[in-house]
Amino acid sequence: MELKQVIIVRKDLKMGSGKLAAQVAHAAILSSERARNRNMEWFKGWFEGGQPKIVLKVNSLEDLEKINKLGQFNNLPTAIVRDAGLTQLEAGTATCVGIGPAPDYLIDKITGGLKLL
Predict the structure, then answer these.
(1) Could you give the CA distance from residue 67 to residue 31 in angstroms, rounded to a whole number?
(2) Residue 7: how many other CB atoms lie within 10 Å
(3) Confidence bin at 88 (pLDDT 50/70/90)
(4) What's the rounded mean pLDDT across residues 45-54?
(5) For residue 72, what are the contacts with CB-CB under 8 A and spacing of at least 6?
(6) 0.90 surpassed by pTM
(7) In the chain, is it the N or the C terminus that has fewer CB atoms within a 10 Å radius of its CB?
(8) What is the pLDDT of residues 13-44, one digit of tens each?
């Protein structure tokens, strides 16, 4: 079974590269912790397999929320990142969502049509 993690980023926010990198890192950690707590087999296989990640993009909050809800509906570990508001964005702004680690075919059902960041 191939395992991966996908991070989906909102491009409409036009975050600076450092801000974007930090938000992606938050999503990766949060969703991997959810996976570790919910499905140790997925987490362990992904971790020992080099922690493959793919970063994709959406163009709106609505698209991001839809992806997050689909992940939850399909019982995948998900985590939506909301900014603290200390620098470029208002507090509570949803910036990205992490899905997985989980089997790639389950994640691809949700994110397969999205483009790479």
Answers:
(1) 14
(2) 25
(3) confident
(4) 97
(5) 78
(6) yes
(7) N
(8) 999 999 999 999 999 999 999 999 999 999 99
Q: What angle do CA 78, 80, 83 make, to 5 degrees?
A: 155
Q: What's the per-residue H, E or C state across the chain?
A: CCEEEEEEEECCCCCCHHHHHHHHHHHHHHHHHHHHHHCHHHHHHHHHCCCCEEEEEECCHHHHHHHHHHHHHCCCCEEEEECCCCCCCCCCCEEEEEEEEEEHHHHHHHHCCCEEC
Does residue 97 contact residue 36 with C-beta atoms inside 8 Å? no
Strand order in the sheet with 94-103: 78-82, 94-103, 3-10, 53-58, 115-116
Residue indicated by tokens 């140790």: 40
Question: Could you give the CA distance from residue 16 to residue 25 in angstroms, rounded to a whole number?
Answer: 14
